[in-house]
Write the structure tokens for this entry.
Amino acid sequence: MQYKNILTVHRVKKVPQHRCDKCLPVPWTWASRSISIKLVLSESGLVAYRPFVGERLLKFNLREFHMFLVDKPYISDFLKRTVRDYAIPVVGTDIAKKLDLYDGTRIISEEKAIAMFRETDDLPIYTTSENAIGWISEHFAFSNLPAKIELFKNKVKFRQLTKSIFPDFYFQEVCVENLSAVKFNEIPLPFIIKPTVGFFSMGVYKISNHEEWLNAIGSITREIEKVKGLYPEEVLDTSSFIIEQCIHGDEFAVDAYFDSTGEPVILGILKHTFSSSTDVSDRIYTSSKDIIETNMEEFTSFVRKIGEVAGIKNFPVHIELRRDIDGTLLPIEVNPMRFGGWCTTADLTFSAYGINPYLNYYSGIKPDWPEVLKEKEGKLFSIIILDNSTGIDGAEILSFDYEKLLSNFEKPLELRKIDYRKYPVFGILFVETRGDNFVELKNILDSDLNEFITSRG
């Protein structure tokens, strides 16, 4: 790698003032000489310092080692502030120019982004949406990044990748036109069927008997028509489905990244709560001090195994997994190049604990979880996905009563209203709840949301 083409190097007499104390020593090599430096996260970006001669210091800017790709369907105000305030380079795609990024955001051209990526094999990239995968596949086709992404985004390839870790896991791929020809009696029950390339629990069904299987085939056909055109094929491709064994036990979501050495860094852990054994929706994800502390060590080891078989570095992921009834951890899926969709899990982590996962990935800093979790006992922090479970098409719904919704929670943190006529979701809500008041979460978990809507009928 030719660092001189990317780094801006200056000699300065003293360390400038900065507000952030999240510093750490890391190795750096320049002209074949290894030195120790300090990374400082400041308002002007990520800067490194090292005594050079006497009182003189070497200062260089690491911003151009990273880039963010922003895309539809959504980018949060929090992420917009983050990329602006810390001068994180954002690729100026046609879509990025239409997402109302804040004035002062550092935009780099597509041509510069491509040139930067040619300079290094493992340039850290973050995408706000898997919609950006198409751009990566087109413009970074000269690299191995599109293939790495495909290992995770394609659920069949992911199962094949991890077969050495989970050799007894059952799965098979089937084209959508061949669903009716599947030999049902040869599949172990219960099982899950979902798109080979999917998103947001769309097209996901749990099957326990033949009647449910026949109903699911009909539902899949109708749902394909309903969501057609909402997402590019790189995000949701309903031409092929995967049938896989049903994993029983508690389900979790994990935000993490693999650093420059391939070591995993966990930035958030949430428990996915369901209303019943047949529920496959994304209604509620909850984080807490107990959830993080109880699972941190085991989940880190689990994520490390996946990273090792995939051979990835400088790579963010959003992982969904379950702890089976015998205590074994099994992956549901690994979503590449991002944290939770629609800027959910990372934003909640900041609201709950004050750490910024986007910035941690950008700067390569590992959270000090014991310090972060102080004084968080007895608190639950939840994401509530207000998916349209009313049974009524969004076009037939006149209004959704968001004020009534908010009145059901003791401490709403943020409400994001979504155009439910365009997407099958009314909104996304962040809430803080006392541990002994889980009933307010249970109520919304069990609700079909009909009490909040007014429809044409």
Residues 1-63 have pLDDT under 50 and may be disordered. The chain has three domains: 3-61, 154-245, 250-455.
